[in-house]
Amino acid sequence: MTWQEVLKTGTARLKACGIEEAGQDAWILLEEYGQIDRAHYFLEQTEEMPGELKAQYEQAIEKRAQRIPVQQIIGRQEFCGLNFCVNEHVLIPRQDTECLVEEVLRKIKPGNFVLDVCTGSGCIIISIQKLMKDRCHCFATDISEEALKVARKNAEQLNADVTFWKGDLFESVDGRFDCIVSNPPYIESEVIQGLEPEVREHEPILALDGKEDGLFFYRKIVKEAKNYLQPGGWLLFEIGYLQGSAVTSLLEECGYQNITVKKDLAGLDRIVLASLKK
């Protein structure tokens, strides 16, 4: 089969499985497992695809047909211009979360101490460290040892100086910070079964499930963060697009100030930030 025929067959296989981005996903896998870029593909599309590469590609297509996310198949996802390793133990970084990193960068200064709670792949704290050009002190915590293995690998590969602690939220945290950031689990438990199979079957439930009303971890972090923030320090969250008012109320009840809800690129509520009174 030619390159063109193989790509067409792969796209059709994914479309038959109900995958909306079938063409895009089929191309990403061809680029990865066919070891080809678009320029060379257009030059060689009518030539025979080498058998070994074709077999690897078809195996990848079958994994995607099982609704395994493309990012887990190829083992990486771009975030804030950096490539992060991902697997089934961590949430795949989303573009919406880049808005959270941008807000942190607006609040911190060189020399500040920053803590990322529920770090997962480490994409938030590592991006902060790299975009700050190593001029801040970065720490992160997660309850999952498997997630921390991925985060540590990403920090090593990206040459980011981040200290990782294993623990439930602040359980292993030591010291006070100028900024605490978190993208905690925030999906209501009963909603998870209605998510796309790529999410509910292949991403870690531990990183998704925000318990009955989706606010379980916000309540805990809002309350406990006061013991770890410097006076005047900032607490920033990613939220579900319907959770702005609820998280704002939690912050108000705990005495935070300068509470602000920010929108993502789609115009939906995505970030809530507040400062601790001095």
UniProtKB/TrEMBL annotation:
Q: Which Gene3D superfamilies match?
A: DNA helicase RuvA subunit, C-terminal domain (1.10.8.10), Vaccinia Virus protein VP39 (3.40.50.150)
The alphabetized UniProt keywords are: Methyltransferase, S-adenosyl-L-methionine, Transferase
Q: Which CDD domains does the record cross-reference, listed alphabetically?
A: AdoMet_MTases
GO BP, one annotated term: methylation
- Domain of life of the organism encoding this protein: Bacteria
Q: Where is the Methyltransferase small domain?
A: 97-189
Broadest EC class assigned to this enzyme: transferase
| Swiss-Prot/TrEMBL catalytic activity | L-glutaminyl-[peptide chain release factor] + S-adenosyl-L-methionine = N(5)-methyl-L-glutaminyl-[peptide chain release factor] + S-adenosyl-L-homocysteine + H(+)
Binding residues for substrate: N183, P184, P185, Y186
Q: Which GO terms of the molecular function aspect are on file?
A: peptide chain release factor N(5)-glutamine methyltransferase activity
**Function, please?**
Methylates the class 1 translation termination release factors RF1/PrfA and RF2/PrfB on the glutamine residue of the universally conserved GGQ motif.
Q: What is this protein called?
A: Release factor glutamine methyltransferase
* Species this protein is from: Jingyaoa shaoxingensis
Instruction: Tell me what gene encodes this.
Output: prmC
